[in-house]
């Protein structure tokens, strides 16, 4: 039985095709979508929803080329962001992504928009959360006149693939990422919505991973999937209670499974099948390392006329060579986009000396900075939760392509690190949801037993 999973990410759309019965990865592909677009305001972070949809269709076509009978497909993707749709299900706005900063704009009383909304509703919120964006748009005339609903980009792509004219059922993980969600009840907080002045009719209907959405033009059944963080956990972790998942891609995340719904300061409690994930989210992660690569490549262009490919392979060699030096490293704060707690914070480089002011130490410093931010987020977990973890699972290209970063993380967390044999872990997790929806697997725990590590 052929299962496809799609992951509509911040910079690329990835996909996998599985033989669900044999647990074999048949194909995997990823394309950069170049969907980012300029807004009217400097605080907007926007992408073209239909460019993302076209990229998702292209990935699905590549996966199924020369193969007949894809039975099921599920779509995950970047969380928190929203796109507005009209009565026919067409996008009537750009996607305001999870990086959007309109919630950080100051209000008349000096507080940011998100701070004022959090105080009014009693919910922990961050700029970039979909309902923070929506509330701001309601207050400032930013909602398109023909809009009747909002959804995530994964919802939008699944809706279009299934030929629906209405927003499909939404997994609780995606709903919670919008904000004003009661995790214990598994539903949006009606009183908080009322205090915020948000009509529940704007919101997607509730669903669950593996819920049927509709049928694609080629006959494949389309199913609901969780957000990319939860889908990545499903697609990378075999033993949820024993593992810590570290993901370094465009952003960075550290996630652990728990049945305890107790909130932990500085972490996000996200719905997950059978329990919850405690998630520490770094806004930059791999974006900080990409910024360093662009800086170094620009220097090579200006001073040496370099016109070659990106420098990541050379950067990894330099970092590995610098690693034994140990003491005297540069201290790099890689929070170039701030943090959930401090959206206005920016990065810094300290501890510069004549001995360590070198490219290799700068590269190593950035990798250590990414590691330290994730390690600090993990340290917020209660000691009893951390004591249950026996191994790290690493995913995302930021880890797959950087052995030095893998080593730094293993040292910081004090746990051995494993990497799945398959890439595109979130798409893999989405494909498993399609398998559950089709009845191939009894549940997601059973589906995860096909995961293998290097």
UniProtKB/TrEMBL annotation:
Gene Ontology terms, MF aspect? kinase activity
Per the record, the GO terms for biological process are: carbohydrate metabolic process
Q: Which residues form the Carbohydrate kinase FGGY C-terminal domain?
A: 246-437
InterPro entries hit by this protein: ATPase_NBD, Carb_kinase_FGGY, FGGY_C, FGGY_Carb_Kinase, FGGY_N
Q: Which domain of life is it from?
A: Bacteria
Keyword Amino-acid biosynthesis found: no
One Pfam family name is FGGY_N
Keyword annotations: Kinase, Transferase
Positions of the Carbohydrate kinase FGGY N-terminal domain: 4-221
SUPFAM superfamilies the UniProt entry points to: Actin-like ATPase domain
The UniProt family comment states: Belongs to the FGGY kinase family.
| Protein name stated in the entry | Sedoheptulokinase
Which species does this protein come from?
Plasticicumulans lactativorans
Q: Taxonomy-wise, where does this protein's organism fall, top ranks first?
A: Bacteria, Pseudomonadati, Pseudomonadota, Gammaproteobacteria, Candidatus Competibacteraceae
């Amino acid at each position: 039985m052929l299962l496809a999973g799609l992951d509509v990410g911040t910079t690329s759309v990835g996909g996998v095709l599985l033989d669900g019965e044999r647990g074999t990865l048949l194909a995997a592909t990823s394309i950069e979508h170049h969907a980012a677009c300029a807004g009217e305001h400097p605080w907007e972070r926007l992408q073209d929803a239909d460019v993302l949809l076209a990229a998702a269709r292209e990935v699905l076509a590549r996966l199924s080329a020369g193969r007949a009978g894809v039975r099921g497909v599920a779509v995950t993707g970047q969380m928190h962001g929203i796109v507005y749709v009209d009565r026919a299900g067409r996008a009537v706005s750009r996607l305001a992504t999870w990086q959007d900063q309109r919630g950080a704009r100051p209000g008349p009383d000096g507080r940011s928009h998100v701070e004022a909304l959090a105080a009014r509703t009693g919910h922990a919120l961050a700029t970039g959360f979909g309902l923070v964006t929506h509330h701001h748009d309601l207050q400032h005339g930013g909602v398109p006149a023909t809009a009747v609903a909002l959804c995530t980009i994964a919802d939008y792509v699944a809706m279009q693939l299934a030929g629906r004219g209405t927003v499909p059922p939404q997994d609780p993980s995606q709903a919670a990422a919008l904000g004003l969600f009661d995790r214990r009840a598994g539903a949006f907080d009606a009183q908080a919505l009322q205090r915020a002045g948000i009509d529940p009719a704007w919101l997607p209907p509730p669903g669950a991973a593996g819920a049927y959405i509709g049928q694609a033009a080629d006959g494949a059944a389309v199913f609901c999937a969780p957000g990319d963080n939860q889908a990545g956990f499903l697609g990378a972790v075999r033993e949820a209670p024993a593992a810590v998942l570290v993901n370094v891609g465009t952003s960075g995340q550290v996630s652990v499974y728990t049945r305890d719904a107790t909130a932990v300061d500085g972490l996000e409690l996200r719905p997950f099948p059978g329990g919850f994930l405690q998630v520490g989210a770094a806004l930059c992660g791999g974006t900080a390392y990409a910024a360093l690569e662009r800086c170094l490549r620009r220097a090579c262009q200006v001073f040496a006329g370099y016109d070659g490919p990106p420098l990541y392979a050379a950067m990894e060699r330099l970092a590995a060579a610098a690693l034994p030096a140990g003491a005297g490293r540069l201290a790099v704060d890689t929070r170039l986009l701030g943090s959930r707690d401090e959206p206005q914070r920016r990065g810094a480089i300290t501890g510069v000396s004549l001995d360590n002011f070198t490219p290799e130490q700068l590269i190593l410093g950035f990798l250590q900075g990414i590691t330290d931010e994730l390690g600090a987020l993990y340290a917020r977990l209660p000691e009893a939760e951390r004591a249950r973890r026996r191994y790290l699972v690493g995913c995302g290209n930021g880890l797959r392509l950087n052995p030095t970063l893998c080593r730094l993380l293993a040292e910081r967390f004090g746990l051995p690190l494993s990497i799945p044999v398959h890439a595109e872990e979130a798409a893999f997790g989405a494909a498993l949801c399609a398998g559950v929806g089709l009845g191939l697997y009894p549940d997601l725990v059973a589906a995860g037993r096909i995961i293998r590590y290097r």
